[in-house]
What we know:
The structure holds 2 protein chains of 2 kinds.
Chain A: H1 3-11, H2 18-24, H3 26-35, H4 44-47, H5 53-62, H6 69-94, H7 98-110, H8 115-118, H9 121-134, H10 139-147, H11 150-155, H12 169-179, H13 187-197, E1 200-201, E2 208-209, E3 219-221, E4 224-226, H14 230-237, H15 243-255, H16 262-274, H17 279-290, H18 303-313, H19 320-329, H20 352-367, H21 370-382, H22 402-413, H23 419-428, H24 440-453
Antiparallel strand pairs in A: 1-2, 3-4
Chain B: H1 2-11, H2 23-26, E1 40-46, E2 56-57, H3 62-67, E3 79-82, E4 85-87, H4 92-99, E5 103-110, H5 118-127, H6 139-147, E6 155-158, E7 173-176, H7 179-187, H8 198-209, H9 214-223, H10 235-248, E8 255-260, H11 269-293, E9 300-306, E10 325-331, E11 338-339, E12 348-349, E13 352-353, E14 357-358, H12 359-371
Parallel strand pairs in B: 1-8, 1-9, 5-11, 5-14, 6-7, 6-8
Antiparallel strand pairs in B: 2-4, 3-4, 5-10, 9-10, 12-13
Helix pairs in contact in B: 4-11, 9-10, 10-11
Amino acid sequence: MEILHLNALRFGFSTKDASKIHSLGLSKYISNQLHAKIDLAEPQFIKESPKSLADLRKLKQSANKGNKELEKIVKNLLKIHLEWKAFLVERFFETAYPLREKINLFFQNHFVVTLQSVNVPYWIFQHYHTIHQHAIGNYKTLVKEMVYSNAMIKYLDNQQNKKGKINENLARELLELFTLGEGNYTEKDIKNTAMALAGLSFGKSKGQYRAMLMDNSSKIVLGKTGNFTIDEVIDIIFEQKNTPYFLAEKVLRWFFYDNPSHELVHQYGNLLKEKHFELKPFFQEMFEQEGKNEKGGNQIKNPLIYFAQIHYDLHLTPNYKLIALLLKNQSMDIYDQPNVKGWKGGQNWLTSQIYADRNQFIDFVIDGNKQFKKILSKKLEKFDLGTISYNPKLKILNPKNAESILYELTQKMLFETDEDMKQELNQLLNYDFDPTAENAEKSILKVYQFLAKSPEFQII
Amino acid sequence: MKRRKFLQITATGTGGILLLPQFLWANSFFGELDKLSENKLIFIQLNGGNDGLNTFIPFTDPLYYSNRPTLGISKDKILNTSSGMGLHPALKDFATILQEGNLSVIQNVGYPNPNRSHFRSQEIWQTASDSNQYLNYGWLGRFLDIQCKDENLKSLNIDHIDNLALKAAVSNGITVKDFTKIKRYNHDDNQLKLSDNPQLDFVRKLQFTSLEGMEEINKSLQNAEKYTEIYANNPLAKNLEWMAKLIKGNLASKVYYTSLNGFDTHNNQLQNHSKQLTILNDAVFSYYKDMKANKLLESVTLVIFSEFGRRVNQNGTGTDHGTAGPMFIIGGNNKGKIIGKNPDLSQLDQGDLIYDIDFRSVYATLLKNKYDFDPTLINIKNQIIKDLF
């Protein structure tokens, strides 16, 4: 695979930006992405939705008992969930700054909250908005903001965390999943961190402490003693050895390697520490450095990239809600991770079922299988998603002959093309293939279909 | 962990069946109760354009030798000579099959306005279209869409790429690259290493189990485990061996397809062609013995064809793309005849043979005779060949 395409996939969701990376150069491209001012306005459907749990309760109570009004309200809320997922998918597909959205999604998967469990779409919007604001700022600030997120408080039950009745959920994840990683703290540290979080509950735009429920006793966290606020606890956490390495490893996994080496984790952990957890220079340096690595084949492609890439390549008109559902089917349900650990990535992205579903999708797009069409139509109807009409078009820049076509497609789609693959492709598109023949376009689409179903295409 | 899981997935479906006494599944005594006695078609597509004139040879025609001064096969080497035609020496076991009355040769098969591009001519053969017509679905795919309602797995293609002939609007077929690997994935619980890239290995292994119809295939492979016919050692033989195994293991699929490359003999034809025909001969004869021994020869019809023949006049050490050529039918209760006129080397069109029998007549005959299927339903209107079955 040509490195421009490889980098477009690493830093975005499809190969769309390959030409931009080419014209700007990698360093400038990354810097442009990281410095852009990008709007994230509150979408209309969020404006119209309940703003808090209290609002939600009121809305549900307003329904007359006995008739179907409540059912309707619940159904409507679920519709908003899907609209939110589709809203994000659209951003991922359409943005001129895919790297920024990819960083946002990385942090969303790092600070997991789910629509299903939070149930207040407005809080979910705020959660994403906060990430968007701080994702290229300071990591410590972002962690502090996340702890105060209404969605996070709800997702990890901190509203139940009160003096004398400590709930450790948020404290545990703060240490285990947000900053230090397992093995770098004790159960006592969790307990004392939880004490610092006691009384932190929902507020208007972010969480607020209820003075009555706070625990003002002295705490011992990671060897330090004092009546710490949660902000002070987080300061202590950021003095710990493992904090920068923990994040560096996860970033490497999200953007580059399913199995990053210890050396690499060490190198970029050091970098993050050196930059005092400032994310922009950290990302800039890591992305520039690793973007020079011409060798692909290090990362199983996640479903989002899989669908975005195919939509882009084949000029398909996206139905974002349907894509959100397809993503769910591929176990990448946006803002509805299966648990607090988030999507694990790597080999977890693929099972034989998921692989079969991917192949079925591409077969449908290119051949139009009738059975699959039935399944899709049912889905579209059930969720009121409108219609789809796939009319795949593949642009070949250099359609001189079979060789030039195969070269172009493999360079764009596969991280490597071994001898077996070359032979198979030559069998598929014989050397005497006529690119001007009446059905040439169909035949080239068949090559795309074949490549999209190959194991190599499932890997970046 | 993951790996263990998918191995479990592939293992499903083999249960139940194994509890039954083995003889139930092997014995054609019960043939009428199961799928064993149902007619099956196997196709071998010779890729590249097989030189028909050097395969089934008009050795009594002096024009053959004058057009092929260095490539002509000398008369004394030609096998099973009768009525002016005989087989290439590499096809020694085809000669046996012919003598046993189980091989029919259909001569001069082609189509009007022949296209000499591999790509296009294969497409024409696979879709059964006219030479200026473009169809989206394969002829076998269209047939299976109408004929097969229940079977989960309608067709099996053992090849590296999907075959257009099997492409259907509804019916799912399956393309399997390498059964040997599947078998190993299913039985070895060790970490099989295919490449230096663990992620790629992981996905490649998944690829096999993600194929729809894998369950049926595994079931049939289990059923067929007790059969141990010995096949020749070449890739085509391997493919035929797997097909035969699956058929013996009671796989419901009606249509099987595979291909053999290497027939585009522009250079060094004498050697290359002989090598490919030897592979074909050995593979087909292994298969033939197997089918005969297991009393399946009558129900399974093997069809061998190529997208075109080659130019009559040799060009250097090879031959150029041509038009008509012979087709071979083995088993399926064929009459064991040589059908059609011998190639007419005096009447050529731009140096190429003029076809005599349309390939779609062969298709029509297969569908009508084996499945009592009306070929006009898939828009094949050519005449049935009377002497084939």
